[in-house]
């Protein structure tokens, strides 16, 4: 069953704690992306990776970090430096850049 | 960078009527324009896309048109059904260097189809 899996679906953390969101894909895609979605807003790009061991900052990278040690995995860490971390986070992948992006089901992060 | 404007933000239509959602983009170098449908609590799903060398593309009840000169593209849904109710996002892709492309999304249109 091919696809892109994000876990967990819901995540609660206390203010000041780092938290890592998981994203795994078995589509053999080279490119992976992290987006943030806030109510009434479009998707804003946090980080993206075109190939293993390489990634670039998107439009809102401050307070976030990523790694791409394996082709299948692209975890996102929301650090305590992110001033407003409560949001819906979406991971996506595409075979190569500039082609159809497949999205996961998202992780809703709530920081209290 | 690229800026994508999407209108309207909400749209209500009667079942069977057509729905049109419009987007404009700022960078003439953008060359790929996908449309995504997002149902509540789920990730977006691609419904149709178009590249800059094509003016129109259809897939059953869905069509997208692109006007490169005016830098706008539109989604057309005919014979709307209640299951078309969702949030729709347009996006524009631009080359960002070193083999990388970035998708910039509009803010979304909440479509409600009234039975």
Main β-sheet of chain B, in a few words? 6 strands, mixed
Quote the average pLDDT of chain B: 94
Order of helices and strands of chain B: EEEEEEEEEEE
How much of the sequence of chain B is in beta strands? over 45%
**Structure annotation, total helices of chain B:** 0
Fraction in beta strands of chain A: over 45%
Rg from Cα of chain B:
14 Å
CA-to-CA gap between the ends of chain B?
41 Å
Residues in helix, % of chain A: under 10%
Question: Low-confidence segments of chain A, ≥5 residues, pLDDT <50?
Answer: none
General shape of chain B: globular
Task: Please provide a written account of the structure.
The complex is a heterodimer of chains A (112) and B (115). Chain A has 112 residues and is mainly β. Helices cover 0% and strands 50% of the residues of chain A. Chain B has 115 residues and is mainly β. Chain B is built from no helices and eleven strands. In chain B, the strands form two sheets. In chain B, strands 2, 4, 5, 9, 10 and 11 form a six-stranded mixed beta sheet that branches. In chain B, strands 1-3-8-7-6 form a five-stranded antiparallel beta sheet, with no helix packed on it. In chain B, strand 4 and strand 5 (45-51) form a beta hairpin. Chain B is globular and about 50 Å long. Chain B starts with a strand and ends with a strand. The model of chain B has no long low-confidence stretch (mean pLDDT 94). The A-B interface holds A 6, 33, 35, 40-45, 48, 50, 56, 58-59, 90, 92, 97-106 and B 1, 4, 6, 9, 31-32, 34, 36, 41-46, 49, 89, 91, 93, 95-96, 99-108.
């Amino acid at each position: 069953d091919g696809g892109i899996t994000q876990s967990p679906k819901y995540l609660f953390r206390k203010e000041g704690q780092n938290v890592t969101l998981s994203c795994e894909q078995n589509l053999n895609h080279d490119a992976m992306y992290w987006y943030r979605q806030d109510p009434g807003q479009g998707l804003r790009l946090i980080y993206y990776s075109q190939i293993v061991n390489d990634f670039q900052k998107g439009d809102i990278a401050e307070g976030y970090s990523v790694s791409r040690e394996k082709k299948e995995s692209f975890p996102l860490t929301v650090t305590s430096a992110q001033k407003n971390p409560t949001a819906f986070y979406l991971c996506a992948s595409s075979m190569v850049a500039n082609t159809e992006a497949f999205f996961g089901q998202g992780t809703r992060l709530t920081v209290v | 960078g690229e800026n994508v404007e999407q209108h309207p933000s909400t749209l209500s239509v009667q079942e069977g009527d057509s729905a049109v959602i419009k987007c404009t983009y700022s960078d003439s170098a953008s060359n790929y324009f996908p449309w995504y449908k997002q149902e509540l609590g789920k990730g977006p799903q691609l419904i149709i896309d178009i590249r800059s060398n094509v003016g129109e593309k259809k897939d059953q009840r869905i069509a997208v048109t692109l006007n490169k000169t005016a830098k706008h593209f539109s989604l057309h849904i005919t014979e709307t059904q209640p299951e078309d109710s969702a949030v729709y996002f347009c996006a524009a892709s631009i080359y960002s260097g070193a083999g990388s492309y970035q998708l910039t999304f509009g803010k979304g249109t909440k479509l409600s189809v009234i039975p």
